[in-house]
Structure formats: C-alpha cells, structure tokens
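pasting input
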Amino acid sequence: MNSNSNLACDTCPVRESAACASLNDEERIKLSKIGRHKILKKGETLTAAGDENTVCATLVSGALKITSNDRDGTERILSLVHPAGFVGELFSPAVHHDVVALTESKLCVFSRPQYEEIIEGHPALALALLRRSADDLFDARSMMDLAGKRSADARVAGLIQAFARAASHSPCHSADTFDLPLTRGEMAGMLGLTIETISRKLGLLESDGLIKRQGARGIRISDHARLAELSD
Amino acid sequence: MNSNSNLACDTCPVRESAACASLNDEERIKLSKIGRHKILKKGETLTAAGDENTVCATLVSGALKITSNDRDGTERILSLVHPAGFVGELFSPAVHHDVVALTESKLCVFSRPQYEEIIEGHPALALALLRRSADDLFDARSMMDLAGKRSADARVAGLIQAFARAASHSPCHSADTFDLPLTRGEMAGMLGLTIETISRKLGLLESDGLIKRQGARGIRISDHARLAELSD
DNA sequence: CCACTGCCTTGATCTGGATCAATTCACGTC
DNA sequence: GACGTGAATTGATCCAGATCAAGGCAGTGG
C-alpha cells in the first residue's frame, strides 16, 4: 500500500470524469484533504464482505471486481468497476461484497463517514453520485439480463459484445479487436457457467467464424451481426 | 387512468418514507404541482422498453415489476418495486426496461425533465434518491447472487426467504406465514428457471417438511434453519 | 535448461432441469 | 351449481451443460 496526503488532483487521469469532477477547486481541495491514494496489486482486496464499512473510493486506474462467495468457494462476480467508478456502500453499516483488484489498480480512498459529510454539504457531489449510481444500477440490470439468458452460447456472445463495447470507450460503436479482461474462471463467475463451458463456447464461436482468437485473451470480432443475433 | 392535480400529500401513505419525504412543505407543494396520480390495473404498463423516457414516479401502493423481454417472449424480472419505491431512469434519453403493475397500483407520476430540475435545486431530494438508488443497487446485486446459485433448490429456497423477509416489514427477522406475491411464471422469470421446476421444487420443499402450503400462494415456513442451509 | 505453477483446452460421461404433454385446481361469472 | 379460463401440478423424455479426468502451454524462478 502506498499512502499519500497530496492527492495531486491536477494530474489525476479521471479528474474530468469521476464524481469529484463536479466540485469546484475549493471543494476539491477539501475533499483531497480527507482522501489518500492506495495501490492494490492484482488480486488484493480493498474491502471484504463482513468488514466494518469504513471506506469508499474512486478508481483512478486499473480495474476492480465486486464479488460474493458461496460457502463452497464459488465466486460470483456482481460487477466490474472501471476507472472513474465509485465503490463503497454508502449509508450501510457493514460491507456486503468483496472488492478485489483485477489488475494493479490505483484508488483514491476516503473515510466513508467523512465522505458522507461532504456529500451532504455539496449538492453537486450528491448529484454526480446519483448519476453514477443510476448507471451502476443499469449495468447491474444489464448483467442480470445477460446472465439470465437460457443458452450458454447467448451468454458468452453477449459477454463478448459487452467487453467490445467497454473496450472502445466511445459508447456508440464497439471495438472489434481487444483483450478479454478476465480469466475463463472469472467469465464463468459472471455468467453462472463453468470454466470448461466458456472455453468450449469460445472455441465454437471461433470455428463458426464469428470471432478470431489471438492467444488466450486476444479477441477479434469477425461477424458482429451474427454475434448480436446469437446473443439475443 | 386516473389523473388529478391535487396530490393530497398529507394523506399519502408513503409520505414518511418516499424520496419526497426529504422536502419541506413548501418544496413538496412545488413538487406536487408537477405530479399527478395514476392508477395502474394489474398487468398494465407504465413505460415500455423503447419508449421515449419522459416520466418517473413514486409508487404509492401496490407493486411493480421491472422486466426485460427476450425476442422469444420470455420475460425476465429484473426488480420488484414496493410502495415508496422510485421508478424511472433519470438522465437517460430512452427507456430500457418495461415497468408493469403486479397488482393494482397507485403511482405519483412526474415529468422527468421537470423532476430533474427540481432535484438540481433541492439537495435533500438528490440525497434521498441517492440513498434509494444505493438500496436498489444492493437489491439488484442480491438478486444476481440468488439467480446465480447453481442448483434450482437453492434458488427457490432463497427466493422464499427473500419474500419472507419482505413480508414482515421489520428488516431484522422474517415472517413465517405469508402469501407469495408472484405467479409461478414470474418466480421462474426471476430465477431463470421454468414454471414446472418452480412447482416441483415447492412440492419437494413441502414434502421435505421445510414449508407448508395453503393453496397456490400461501406459504408457512416450518424449518427456517434447513431452508437457510439449502439456500446457501 | 528444467521444473513448477497457473491457465486453458479437450475428451468422456452423467444429470438436473428443460421440454412436451396431459390433467387438475381455483376462482370468477352467469 | 355448472362453466370457463388461467394457473398449477404431475409425468415422461431429452439434452445442454456440469462434472470428472487428462494433457497442453505459457511465464517464472531456480
């Protein structure tokens, strides 16, 4: 862990897009006083289910997953967090889900009670978080939709499309070459399938000519139309 | 549809718990001027996916479901809305999901742009919506968790527990006698199972002595402990 | 260079839940 | 009380995906 009271917001890569972008300079300085940077290495956890709920954070770079674990050890991925995303369960006394780094990640961490205090005094921040929360809710529902499709083919095809959309950060049209951000196991966890099924379905998608694979992670979509049809 | 410009907030059953409870009298009067009551009969829809996104609403009484539909007609329930709940996708130009009444429901409907304007001028409302949105997000994730369990038994057991918790409106401990608020088909839609499987699993739960059924909808939980164990 | 360790792939088999197909039940209406 | 209709149950069969079991293929460190 790397801690630092100089948040240096001026050089922050998400200063335009994170919730704190809604604050003016003076307000942001106030916020930066209660925040600190933290680096999580791949696989490290920020907060675990059951912890006392004391922190919240903005993701500066990297990627996080929000997960729950069955007692038998199976991990279920509930959400992915991208840079500028906000994590933390405001208003709740305990943490319900694990938050784990998918890759080395840089966070801007705040004490939750202090952050809540600032929210209450700064309407623009509340509004920005509301917007972000509405997006998160929409994402969660999209994911429920995806994971609820009957066939494994439709789920895998839909997930690939979702990643393609996320990869090209223009929200309208999707990238056609990108790297899968997750392992087979993590994809399985998102879709409620097994590692083997993911692997097989990817193989099928390739042999049917919908995608082309480059190593284990690289994907090129060759037939957007058929992929979309499959996923629907 | 029943429209009325006198919202009569003073007698509203959710005046203490809905988002608008955060406003003072003067502010609430302003809000009431842009709202109107609407009654939806069982099965009627407030907004359908693809509509222009022009309204949002607070549920006063009854119950709603938020759903998406596969082209093949299968309905997937993404969320249930209870009285005092807020529906509407703020900040989004188009509606993504259907909102349908599960039972006859009374709503307080607002023009979305006008409502957004009020939010921006009234921090307390933004804060109340943020709180509600955080709850919705948590609920959505709980549901993903439930629908992602591997076995049908675990899902059905979990759903019964969730209903039992919702039925006793004290959040700590759950009712042990209550009526299922959904048809078998709707439960199937929530859990990604079929009507037949739901029916069979309920039958098994009864013959195993975990629950007792009274007609098609009535449930009495006889063995909370084993039910909890099954669902986990 | 080899051994080790995570991931990923591929194959063979098994099974839980889907699907297809009747009944049966509950309830509102005449 | 008979009738009609949508919901629920129950049974028989089938199949997609889980599970079990080997390998294969990087990347890492000795």
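fyi Residues 1-5 of chain A have pLDDT under 50 and may be disordered.
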